[in-house]
Amino acid sequence: MVREIVGWVNREDRLFAKQITNGVAGTAGEHVYFKPQGVADAVMATRVSKCILPIDFKSEFKDTWTMDAPNGKKVNSFFCGAGGFDLGFIRAGYDVAGAWDFDEYAVQSYRHNIGDHVQKADVSKMKGEDIPKTNGWLFGFPCQDISSAGRQSGMIKGVTRSGLFYEVMRLLGEVEEKPEWILAENVKGVSKLSSIIQEEYSKVGYTLVSPQLYNTKFWRLPQKRERYFLLGIRKDVRKSFNFPEQSTEFIPELGSVLETEVDKKYHINAQKSAEIIGHADGCDLTKYYVRKLTPREFARLQGFPESYEQVVSDSQFYKQMGNAVSVNVAYAIAKAIDDQL
């Protein structure tokens, strides 16, 4: 039985080989495979149970960054990590006055790529006098105790990592002049705590806009990543706000972020590839391989520009990109805030 590969199908954040089997359209199995550069676009032998599709290595996410004109507005960034949240706002014309994170490797990446204004700091030890006056505050506070994949210990003040949310609230009470708005980001599990967050926002003088859930795949990035954004507007500002709408018209494909030449250290060995594909003996697999995403590809999935350089180990970079706010989403929100507040 000969299978003819005719294209990609992007379905719920998974890539499938779109194929014709004896003239009948169908889809391949649940695994994703990558075809190395230089391999002919021939269909694999019938002994191999899955088809491998030649990837269209687009340049859609490469070197396409444009910067909006400066808008004269400033933000502070807490738990800044590698700077995904900040990059979205910088791209929209904002200046980042202060940025803080406790992770020295994240600070290293941030300082090298974004600026020297970043500091390694424990937010629980910061004082209001340490914080410059700005229009807004960003804080993607730790999610480990809220995430379904984490400890689920809750947002407990002075106890859990996610409880550091309260330290930002404390600082808002200490600063001489509060920002016009504050914007938090976290995993889907934070929705269960929205009433608590609303109450805490109110205590320090902010009205919580209805929490907004965004899926990264609807912001021109080929991954399914759902995150809540919780905007608080200072009560005396008296302005309404509408979050930007997601667009389902264009969902990019994973191939658009993949590299054509990849170091062998990212390959899974031949035997493991054979097991994944379904052939323990590895027959007919000498020209094909299964691999993990490279650090650069991981950064592209999060919307980081090609100019963002890796200056830490692979493991640290993967961690930083995994923790980051998707730049495209941050940019869209930043534009909306600039227009409305």
Features:
eight-stranded mixed beta sheet, 341 residues, alpha/beta, single chain, three-stranded antiparallel beta sheet
Give the structure's gist in a few sentences:
This protein is of the alpha/beta class. Helix content is 23%, strand content 18%. It has helices at residues 84-91, 104-113, 165-174, 194-203, 270-277, 295-301, 314-323, 327-340, and strands at residues 3-11, 14-21, 24-27, 74-78, 95-101, 118-120, 136-139, 181-186, 206-208, 212-215, 226-234.
Choose one word for the global shape: globular
Report the order of strands and helices.
Answer: EEEEHEHEEHEHEEEHHHH
Distance between the termini: 61 Å
Number of strands: 11
Report the helical percentage: 10-25%
Cα Rg: 23 Å
Q: Can you give the mean pLDDT?
A: 74
Largest sheet: 8 strands, mixed
Estimated structural class: alpha/beta
How much of the sequence lies in strands comes to: 15-25%
Query: What is the number of helical segments per DSSP (H or I, 4+ residues)?
Result: 8
Uncertain stretches = 1-63, 145-150, 270-289
Summarize the SSE layout with pairings.
Layout: E1 3-11, E2 14-21, E3 24-27, E4 74-78, H1 84-91, E5 95-101, H2 104-113, E6 118-120, E7 136-139, H3 165-174, E8 181-186, H4 194-203, E9 206-208, E10 212-215, E11 226-234, H5 270-277, H6 295-301, H7 314-323, H8 327-340
Parallel strand pairs: 4-5, 4-7, 5-6, 7-8
Antiparallel strand pairs: 1-2, 2-3, 8-11, 9-11, 10-11
Helix pairs in contact: 1-8
